[in-house]
Amino acid sequence: MWYRLIGFADDDHAMNILAVHPPYPGNKQIVYLPLGLGYTTAVAEREGHEVTVLDMHNLRLSYDVLEKTLARREFQACFMGGFAMQVKGMAKVTELIKKVQPDCKVILGGVGVSDIPEIALNYTRADIVSNGEAENVLPPLLKAIEERRACEDLPGFVYRRGGDIIKQARAAAPDDLDALPYPAYHLFDVDYISTKSYNGRGPRSLHLMTSRGCPFKCNFCINSVLNNRTLLKEIHGKVEEEAAKSQRFRSVGSLAKEIEFLRSRYGITDFHFADEEFITHRRRLEEVCQAIEPLGISWSTSGRADWATEDKLHRMKKAGCTYVLFGVETGSQTLLDLMDKNAKKPAVAQGLISARKVGMDFIANFMVGHPGETESTIRETVDFCKEHKLIFLPAFVTLFPNSKMFHDFAKNITDWDWYFKTLSTIDFNRNLLVNLTKMPQKKLLAMRNWAVAETFSTMLAPKLTGVLHKALTKLLTVALVISDRCPNSLRMPIRNAIRAIFGRTTSKITSDGSDRSMSTQVPPNEYGQSELPDAYEESLRELTAPPRK
Fold first, then answer.
1. Whose CB among 236, 395, 429, 473 lies 3.0–4.6 Å from 170's, allowing a Cys bridge?
2. How far apart are CA 18 and CA 6, in angstroms?
3. For the chain, what is the domain count?
């Protein structure tokens, strides 16, 4: 129950701080422990402050709970962090806090606001926005608030004072991840979250961080901003970091200790490593696998298919990895180039083939509607999916803050209330926020529906051809339109059932004794097990390349 999470401060603590995980009403089925908020609350506790957490999203708490909490205790500061889909909720929470406790300093952070601080401050009416990772710069800010001193000169934040916005430099991100405290797990309902955790496979599962950052610059991702110093300066004005650090790793000893802590304290035996890129760095992958294999846990992670070789995937599986989320995105080389993926389609295909050859389950994530998407590129992706026995279940490309693509198109957003309100309720798997292509929206939606149905019908009845195949595709298109109108509580089980039925997350032993996914297509001879580049340092060279204009 929510009241179990309310622990009020005593006189020995410096300040009472409220930490709110804002609601995301658009997809209540996604349950996860918010690591960013977990780390910042842990830092605040380490500084001697008493923190109360209201996990509004996961526990589906009403605003009445917030009002009752504010009525019971006075807070000197409030933290909120999250995605752009939660900014509307941040505004509502801020409104209620300022109504009851106008002197409480409201501090926002997370990928939803950190690179649009002025917009976020004006929209939510909060006091402060963190413009980067806040763990190192939060203590002096809290000290200033505690002592009721002016804090607008502290780096790492953007401030609202009356009608003025005061920007300070983007502070350097924490370099020593081992120095960070564990997320404040005890302030969250871990029992509830771990049994419903998004991406989890075990009876009790949690998200866990082993690294931060990624050496690539895909233009729809935060690293297209973080790995582009020119763009960082355009957004933030001044950047304290002397050079961009693409990826930072915690020690494997620290990782193993946190896993052991969570297993002994909460019974967690399954983990999703929420790294932005896990597979690229071969030496690091081996170190992590070697450290966690003796622990006997199961785990999953995300990675690039074009860097997923058989030996890496075999090592991961041996260490307990049960599946990988591959960001395939598209089957069109034209679009891969427009996305700045720095990936070649044969290498992506080879990664999928390698996963199936070693029996590594995976989900191939796709998107549709990227700038430059055409009927031709969608048909290319359908051909790619049919060749590799994949069902095309894409998310619509959406303009999220903290991406180069967002900053390329943000000038077209003139109504931020519409933007944040729509983001808070939209399901990106079936609804389009903004059409970024040159196709008419009706045509884009029709092509998406056809593409899903075409790959589905090919998997459902591979020997069906001609008129019968077209009829089945048409029938499935109609079914898809009906499904898109169903609530998420029905659609998510349907989506998972499709993946299971067609082997996207299952495997079997074939007659030749190899372990392959049911969705595996025999590798074409021209792909085979090719010698593809697999040096982490090569990806780092991308950081020195001139940014795309």
1. 236
2. 10
3. 2
